[in-house]
Design goal:
Elements: E1 2-9, E2 17-24, H1 28-54, H2 66-83, E3 88-93, E4 98-103, H3 110-125, H4 129-137, E5 155-160, E6 163-171, H5 175-190
Antiparallel strand pairs: 1-2, 3-4, 3-6, 5-6
Length: about 190
């Protein structure tokens, strides 16, 4: 609030005259109360905005945990043992990152790379790596320029509720047997 204050100014050489100045007079009780109310209102508005912005339901992402990986590996190993073959088993996530790799003692060294490529193809393209081999057999060699495209049977995508979680592959036996071993891993996971 603004109030006018008048004072008399006296000097020895001049006559006395009135000088007007404006002085701010704060009513501390009302001003403090209104500032507190303003901060409370601001806090209330901000808290409502924050809670409504974080209240949005985010989609739930499924992923391969260690228990799921161990289950698939056990199923794939059992199928390889049943068929009496030595293979390399590989599991990758949906981005192609290696989650599990196991080479049997008698499997050749090149199966390490081949199993990873089959699994990555299955995860990236959300399709069995056999589809890539079929495309090349049809004469569609342009597909070989695609990144991580690997035309060899034996890799399968790991899919649940329409979402690709990764890929599983086996390498070291005939391509059909490799795919059957990978399928046994999926069957163990999904209890088929």
């Amino acid at each position: 609030m603004l109030r006018r204050r008048e004072t008399l100014l006296a000097t020895s050489l001049r006559p006395k005259r009135r000088v007007s100045t404006y002085v701010f007079i704060w009513k501390t009780e009302k001003a403090t109360g209104s500032i507190l109310r303003m901060f409370k209102l601001l806090f209330l508005i901000l808290s409502v905005l924050v809670t409504t912005s974080f209240a949005v339901d985010l989609p739930a992402k499924k992923y391969l945990n260690l228990a799921a990986i161990k289950t698939m590996v056990a199923g794939a190993e059992a199928e390889a043992k049943k068929r009496n073959v030595e293979v390399t088993i590989c599991i990758v996530d949906e981005s192609g990152n290696l989650l599990f790799l196991q080479k049997a003692d008698a499997a050749s060294l090149n199966t390490i790379q081949w199993a990873q490529k089959k699994a990555r193809h299955a995860a990236f393209y959300r399709a069995p790596s056999k589809n890539a081999a079929d495309e090349v057999k049809k004469g569609n060699v342009e597909v070989l320029a695609f990144p991580d495209f690997f035309p060899n049977q034996g890799g399968l995508p790991i899919q649940l509720d329409g979402q690709t979680l990764g890929g599983i592959a086996a390498s070291g036996a005939k391509s059909e047997i490799d795919e059957a071993i990978a399928q046994a891993g999926l069957d163990a996971l999904f209890k088929k």
